[in-house]
Amino acid sequence: MVRLETLRLPRRKLRQPGAWRRLRWLGIGLASAAVTVVAMLPATWIAERVATQTQGRVLLADASGSAWRGSATLALSAGTGSQTATVLPGRLQWTLAFWPLLTGTARLVVSHSEAMAAPVAIAVTPGGWTAQSGAIRLPASLLEGVGAPFNTLRPDGLMRLDWSTLQGRFSGKDGNGMSGHMTLRVEQVSSAVSRLRPLGSYRAEIDWAGAGGGRLQLSTIAGPLHLEGSGTLGRQARFEGTAHAEPEAATQLASLLSLLGRRDNHVTRLRF
What we know:
- This protein has helices spanning 18-39, 43-53, 150-153, 250-260; strands at residues 58-65, 69-77, 85-87, 92-96, 106-112, 120-125, 128-131, 134-139, 155-163, 166-169, 178-191, 200-210, 214-222, 225-233, 238-245, 262-264, 267-271.
- The chain is α+β, with helices and mostly antiparallel strands.
- The protein has two domains: 41-126, no CATH class; 128-272.
- The longest helix has 22 residues, at 18-39.
């Protein structure tokens, strides 16, 4: 009878091929280099993209720091091609979280040393964006960039813009509008074309409805110049309303009212 015996071969240490080791270290090196480059992105990288996405309406001048934690001077203009911009005193600061970027979401927190009482969180995805409710104080001179009649009146005063949670979707080159509610208060307004100061204080309620644009309702809080009306915002913006002066200010405001519109039954008709 023949016995079968199991042969035991000496164990040999398995070794990774040299090419695989080199490839692994190359991958680690490239990943480290990529992380280093991303971490060192300058704040001007954010500034350039903000200017592009807002068609030059929002400018971050004198940007310093990095894309992840930086600051800049906030300037607002009428858009690409505008020769002037209104610069807000103070600095805009932002922080950008790194890890959410791996899931396709950019999470920023922005604040302003002078214009904003509290920071605002913003989330941006390939499909759209969401901004937390907040408020900002702005000079009324920014209204000149809207066009008529503000470019003629050249208003001065203080504005406060409050907003609910805002949402927008990206669709095509110009996006797909935004949704949410805004309240704009313009306090102690004066005009370069009138010696009477102030003209009054006003409130505008704005409801944004996505691609349909927005609806605006204007009312007077106080002052000798009364403005009322409503309109639409968006690509086909329009406004219709009335303006009139209190009796004791009628003479002083006559020339200003003539610039605003046509007189009809003791009121001036506003159409823009």
